[in-house]
């Protein structure tokens, strides 16, 4: 019985050795390429372009302020209230008598409840639009330029590397970004604070401004007081932002890079959240005295 063998029909079901070697080499090369590509995918982290970095830096705080603005309104009203509420009343001899009454708001929770009871959610969200403008304009500089400035001061060995920059370089980069952000955001900060302080009746504390909205406030301030009024308090605002940004960004980047370099932590949402929470606490402690001023 004659049996014909071809490459497609191996003799007695046995594969041709050369074909096997060829197939094995092909499969091994493919597996090597695929494993190499997987390693590349793992090792190389896609870096955002500078335009994307600016966009994300503006968008993320703008979304966050939707949740934080009610607490900011409470903070503003408590700070304006001071320790006591002083009223001047006519006395018996025609002289004014200063009377010190109890505080309108006894605590943060009391302020939150009273504002919601008398003004609703719109009262707690006063100044929301200028708050969004403030956060986006400030963080384009504060967050968007932090990495480029730090990398210029302390270059990375390869893209996506966890920086090894010392704390003092991070503080300089953070303070620089904070100063630029404060200058751009100061007009919106002024308008936001005045809108948040406005209330009616017995809940009104501090100076009251009868603005109907952001553009009404902007127009009234420029016409009545001049454009430079928008930068009133900018010196303390710049100092506040420099200290706060230096503390916030330094703590955040140090903790995150230390966790990646020394604890084997993976760069992801959980590491970002933990680093953000710790750095936020530090920055609040540093900034609050200047917030009061």
From TrEMBL:
Solcar repeats lie at residues 48-152, 165-258. Keywords: Membrane, Mitochondrion, Mitochondrion inner membrane, Repeat, Transmembrane, Transmembrane helix, Transport. InterPro entries: MCP_dom_sf, MCP_transmembrane, Mito_Carrier_Antiporter. Residues 1-38 are annotated as: Disordered. Its main location: mitochondrion. Pfam families: Mito_carr (PF00153). It is a multi-pass membrane protein. It comes from the Eukaryota. It is found in: Mitochondrion inner membrane. One of its GO terms (cellular component) is mitochondrial inner membrane. Residues 26-37 have a biased composition (Low complexity). The keyword Transferase does not apply. PANTHER family: RE38146P. This is Mitochondrial oxaloacetate carrier protein.
């Amino acid at each position: 019985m004659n049996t014909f063998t071809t490459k497609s029909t191996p003799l007695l079901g046995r594969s041709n050795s050369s074909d096997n070697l060829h197939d094995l080499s092909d499969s091994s090369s493919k597996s090597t390429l695929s494993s190499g590509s997987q390693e590349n995918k793992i090792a190389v982290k896609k870096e955002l372009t500078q335009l994307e970095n600016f966009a994300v830096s503006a968008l993320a705080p703008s979304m966050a302020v939707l949740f934080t603005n009610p607490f900011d309104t409470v903070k503003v009203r408590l700070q304006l209230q001071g320790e006591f509420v002083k009223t001047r009343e006519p006395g018996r001899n025609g002289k004014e008598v200063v009377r010190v009454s109890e505080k309108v708001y006894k605590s943060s929770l009391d302020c939150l409840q009273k504002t919601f009871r008398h003004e609703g959610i719109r009262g707690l969200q006063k100044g929301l639009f200028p708050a969004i403008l403030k956060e986006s304009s400030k963080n384009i500089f504060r967050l968007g330029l932090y990495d480029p400035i730090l990398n210029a001061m302390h270059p990375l060995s390869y893209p996506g590397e966890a920086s090894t920059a010392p704390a003092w370089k991070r503080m300089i980069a953070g303070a620089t970004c904070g100063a630029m952000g404060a200058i751009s955001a100061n007009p919106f900060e002024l308008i936001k604070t005045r809108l948040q302080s406005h209330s009616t009746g017995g809940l009104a504390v501090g100076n009251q401004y009868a603005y109907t909205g952001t553009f009404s406030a902007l127009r009234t301030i420029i016409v009545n007081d001049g454009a430079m009024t928008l930068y009133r308090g900018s010196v303390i605002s710049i100092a506040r932002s420099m200290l706060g940004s230096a503390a916030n960004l330094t703590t955040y980047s140090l903790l995150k890079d230390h966790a990646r370099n020394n604890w084997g932590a993976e760069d992801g949402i959980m590491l970002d959240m933990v680093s953000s929470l710790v750095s936020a606490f530090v920055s609040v402690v540093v900034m609050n005295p200047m917030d009061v001023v």
